[in-house]
Design goal:
Helices cover about 30% and strands about 25% of the residues. The chain is built from 13 helices and 22 strands. Strand 1 and strand 2 form a beta hairpin. The longest helix is centred in the middle third of the chain and has 22 residues. The radius of gyration is 26 Å and the shape is elongated.
């Protein structure tokens, strides 16, 4: 049998296509990603596949996504810039109404955002967990939200007739979890528990791509404190963490007073990204820091309730975060208690805090991009650098090998860039065509290996996508430039 299998493999192996090995495994924080490509083609003979270097020709990019503008119906359905750009660049692909495939580049960006969120949440004492998406109807009936939520809930029954919903939020579940552990000591509080997971809401009219969908990723944190004073302190701590997060992303967020809605509680704020496509109407004072969602204000009011001097100006925003001080609304219902300093049971004070993970990605693209090209917050770009070798058969084809050597050496010289440099090896295409693709996907930096690379001291054309500036640098100059690039 061994002899037979040996002969069989000798016949089969030569017929198998050569495939690219996995990207750099020295940085486990780097997930698979992609860049634009017309079609899957064999790389230039100058550029054999490398076990350390992502090649554009080998990264998943369905070609039918790049020309969605040719499909009249698809064009009509794309109701905002971020949706159109993300579909055309192959970042997302529509599935069911309000649901999308997240393609490799989007997954890379989302995982980077998740790492940023983890840093900020764990920096204030957050502990990460994961709760079931399938939530018991009995819990929601106890909180009286089973009927209150109405058609927004995705409801289902199992084979035994038990009722469930797909969780749009997890106040009931996390409070029941805490109560099931028995009475806590006051020394164990505050307790900050959070998860980053898929959520489900039966939107009547899903639209704007990832900005308003039926299935999406959200970070939801639930906090438990010993007193109202302590809960307000935790509330402010989380709000400050949100502010730091958006500052790191370079997004100008407005924190506004908001309605508590069907989640309830005593206090609520929204974190809004100003944008014309936004569905929320905001009132912002021109003289002080006051800002609010228009739904919390009396109709027609234009004077500031905080400083009494400024005029409230209306604008639109995309909600990317929401915070609530809940008090004892849920902890009282589910008997989530702790033993206080007198060793007597007391009900915990709660807060809940949401961040729209996929919504942040889309909202950032919406406000930062041009009509023709995606621009990312630097930390979230799928890849930081794209290296373009010359066209196959061109006058400078002999320096093509320098491109791969350069891309590999950047990762060796700058460990933070390992897995962040991609080589556009589609050398059957012109530099101009590949530059256009690189612009559409929004690599922060593009390095062109062209005629000046053939000089005695090779120099490379470097394009900063955010500023549009172009410079020519030596290999050492590139290392110095990219030394300042932040990654997560």
């Amino acid at each position: 049998m061994e002899v037979l299998m040996h002969h069989l493999w000798q016949r089969v192996l030569p017929r198998l296509p050569r495939v690219m090995s996995t990207p750099c495994k020295s940085d486990l924080s780097c997930a698979a990603g992609h860049a634009p490509t017309d079609s899957i083609s064999r790389p230039s003979t100058h550029l054999p596949p490398s076990t350390h270097l992502p090649l554009v020709s080998r990264l998943f990019q369905p070609s039918n996504l790049r020309d969605v503008g040719q499909e009249k119906r698809a064009q009509v359905d794309m109701t905002c810039k971020s949706q159109r750009l993300m579909q055309q660049a192959g970042l997302i692909h529509p599935s069911n109404p309000g649901c999308y495939y997240y393609l490799p580049a989007t997954v890379r960006s989302m995982e980077k955002l998740v790492r940023l969120i983890d840093q900020e949440m764990q920096g204030i004492g957050g502990q990460k967990l994961d709760m079931p998406s399938l939530c018991s109807a009995e819990l929601w009936r106890r909180s009286e939200r089973w009927d209150l939520m109405g058609k927004e809930l995705f409801r289902l029954r199992d084979r035994h007739g038990a009722e469930y919903c797909l969780g749009p939020t997890h106040e009931e579940a996390v409070t029941e979890l805490l109560a099931s552990q028995g009475t806590l000591s006051y020394r164990q509080l505050p307790l900050l528990l959070y998860q980053i997971t898929r959520k489900f809401r039966d939107e009547p009219k899903p639209r704007f791509g990832l900005l308003r969908g039926r299935e999406f990723y959200m970070k939801d944190m639930y906090t438990f404190d010993v007193s109202e004073e302590a809960a307000y302190h935790t509330y402010e701590s989380v709000c400050q963490a949100y502010t730091r997060l958006f500052s790191r992303l370079g997004l100008c967020i407005v924190q506004v007073h908001a309605d508590t809605g069907n989640i309830g509680g005593k206090l609520s704020h929204e974190f809004q990204l100003p944008a014309d496509i936004g569905e929320d109407r905001l009132l912002v004072c021109g003289s002080c820091s006051f800002s609010a969602n228009v739904e919390t204000m009396e109709p027609g009011r234009t004077d500031c309730p905080q400083c009494q001097e400024g005029t409230l100006m209306e604008s639109k925003g995309i909600e990317v975060g929401h915070t609530f001080y809940l008090g004892t609304k849920y902890s009282h219902i589910f008997n989530a208690t702790f033993n206080n300093t007198q060793n007597k049971p007391a009900v915990t004070e709660m807060g809940c805090f949401g961040l729209g993970v996929t919504r942040i990605l889309a909202a950032a693209i919406e406000v930062m991009s041009t009509e023709e090209a995606i621009r990312w917050p630097g930390l979230l770009a799928p890849y930081q650098v794209c290296v373009l070798p010359p066209k196959r058969g061109s006058k400078v084809d002999e320096v093509a090998g320098l491109a791969e050597e350069l891309a590999l050496s950047l990762g060796e010289a700058l460990p933070r860039l390992r897995g962040e440099v991609v080589l556009d090896d589609r050398t059957q295409m012109t530099i101009g065509k590949r530059l256009k693709d690189a612009s559409r996907l929004g690599y922060p930096y593009v390095v062109v290996v062209g005629q000046k690379a053939a000089e005695e001291t090779p120099r490379f054309e470097v394009i900063c996508q955010q500023t549009g500036e172009t410079t020519f640098l030596s290999r050492d100059g590139l290392v110095d430039l990219f030394r300042c690039v932040e990654t997560v």
